[in-house]
Every structure is written in structure tokens, then in C-alpha cells.
Design a protein that fits this description.
104 residues, alpha+beta, two-stranded antiparallel sheet, 3 helices, 2 strands
């Protein structure tokens, strides 16, 4: 799993690492950067041929990226990914939860 995370870090630079998310603002900065990159990657998939093995690799990268965001936020006190799905045409839809303790 560390190998995959290292490969993703090279392929998908992030504005704020998971370890740096100690405030709500840092969490939202990280999340907005990740979502913007995922959206950009998903839009790039629209131009690839369905028979392309490159397309399959990029879809795999998109799933790994979504999974990484979910894992990075798994113990975050401000926001968590409660689910995600891949859509066609290509995109990722996230469902977020906001822990009740932090809204008070």
C-alpha cells in the first residue's frame, strides 16, 4: 500500500498532506485541491478511446485517487468520505459526512 501511495504522490501533487490537516481550513484546502485534480483527470478521460489500455490505466488511477482521499480523511475530525462512485462519462461522485461533534 505504501508503494501505491508513493506513486500517487508523484502523479497527483497535493496542496496539503494528510498529516498537516489539523484545522478545518487545512482539511478543506486539502479536499478542494484533491477534488479539483480528480475532476481534471476525469475530464481528460473523455478524450480517450474506449479500447485504449491507457484509458483502463487512467480509470484505475482515478479509483486509487478516490480511495486515497477516503483513507486520508478516515480519522479527520472535520469531514469524512462516507462513499464514492465512478460515473460514466468519467467522473467520481463523493458522499461526505461531517461529524456531529465538530458542528457544535
Amino acid at each position: 500500500m505504501r508503494t501505491i501511495a508513493a506513486a500517487l504522490a508523484i502523479s497527483f501533487p497535493i496542496a496539503c498532506s494528510a498529516q498537516e490537516m489539523t484545522t478545518k481550513e487545512e482539511t478543506f484546502t486539502y479536499l478542494s485541491g484533491e477534488l479539483a485534480e480528480i475532476q481534471q483527470d476525469a475530464q481528460a478521460l473523455q478524450t480517450l478511446s474506449a479500447e485504449s489500455s491507457f484509458l483502463q490505466d487512467r480509470i484505475d488511477d482515478l479509483l486509487k485517487k478516490a480511495d486515497s482521499v477516503r483513507d486520508d480523511l478516515s480519522s479527520n475530525p472535520y469531514v469524512r468520505v462516507s462513499g464514492f462512485s465512478v460515473t460514466i462519462p468519467w467522473g467520481v461522485t463523493f458522499e461526505f459526512s461531517f461529524p456531529e461533534d465538530e458542528r457544535q
